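Known limitations

Files may contain more than one protein. Parsers should not assume a single record per file. Below, a two-record file is shown to illustrate correct handling: read the sequence, read the token line, then continue until end of file.
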Amino acid sequence: MEKLMDAIVKPTMGPGLELRKVPVPEPGPGEVLIKIHKTAICGTDVHIYDWNKWSAERIHPGMTIGHEYVGEICQLGEGVTNWKVGQRVSGEGHITCGKCRACKTGNLQWCEKTNSVGVNRNGAFAEYLCLPTTNLVAISEDLDEDIVSFFDAFGNATHTALMYDLVGENVLITGAGPIGIMAAGIAKYAGARRVVITDLNDYRLGLAKTMGADVAVNTGREDLNEIMKQEGIFEGFDVGLEMSGAAPAFKQLVRSMKVGGNVSLLGLGNGETNFDFNDIINKGLTIKGIYGRKPDNWFKMIGMVQGGFDLHPVITHRYHYTEFEKGFEAMHSGMSGKVVLSWV
């Protein structure tokens, strides 16, 4: 008899998700079956729930979603010898070809044949998940599973924030979503002089302060230029991290940078963004597009948490997976950080 499990799936081409019984996957050669313990809701999952343009172009109804998780190996596929049942793991959600130029040069995040967990293949919002061993990350017992559940998002923040040297630098972060909030904490942990974060959401700006941001600016009613003067930032910010994908935020970031400043772009825009190339050229800015995680980001993430970097303030809601609708309601409200779902 076919074994069944609970999973949160995209039922139709429209808004909403559904808890269903689906077959438990069987690990193929080089794969393991993971018993999921905790998952976290990502902004991507919210897009899938809402069925926006991005989702409509990528998601096939009937698929299990979710890509932020932690669990333990419960079954080994054929040929797997270097992992064991009972071992606690998370994993890189971008399954890459391993053969293209990007993969061969250590830039797996740019593989054009990426197969993404919870986007192109069944995801982690389920009792069990199959994953190739090449994507597994061992998780030691001293790491809190609530924190590990959103290491995927923490990896985005780590990749973006640590693209440039931050020691003694003034850092501007535009966008106080959960990843921007984590980036603020990383920047301060890494030795930034002043970390300033901007947004229009006072709740999330408050979370950013809790995570280590020196100043949280609501640009709907506060003047960033005046804040810069108060903080002794007279020549502009050394490093800028754009996390919102909002055109006004990006334009303000560019205007606020020093000559020769460095910018990381993570936030995905919704449509075309018009800006003046002269603002970038005349300042000689270095702008780096960020996507996903590099393999070494996982080691830095684990090292930061084991070294005392506390991510617990980012977690604002915890639910059992059967209450996933409450989790998405919290995400939609804007009055949340990371939302963790328990599967045990």
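...continuing to the second record:
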Amino acid sequence: MTQTLAPYLPSIYAALRIVSGLLFAQHGAQKLFGLLGGTGPVELASIMGVAGVVELVGGLSIAAGLFTSAWAFLASGQMAVAYFMAHAGQGPWPVQNGGELAALYAFLFLYIAARGTGRWGLRP
């Protein structure tokens, strides 16, 4: 399977970056504007406001491939903090404490930060 997909790896990585960035941006839209079933808007000068800005602006930047590594590293850290602030105290395992998405985003964005923009990006 690896040999079959190898020629498509740059495109598959670009799709991963774009889709994960757009999905992450939706969380920011929920927080900042109350869109997509969100409870917002939240105060910008609050933890949730800053999280919303990182999610919306960072997610769109990651999807577009603009300052990808910097935004992905910031998003990864935010998701690690979110996991420990909101989920870790509710049980030892992410599947028990509802933190699977935060943990997955933390490691996904760490990978994207290390790998960079790749194909189909707007590199500055």
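Parsers that stop after the first record will miss the second one. For reference, the second record is described as follows. Residues 9-115 form one domain.
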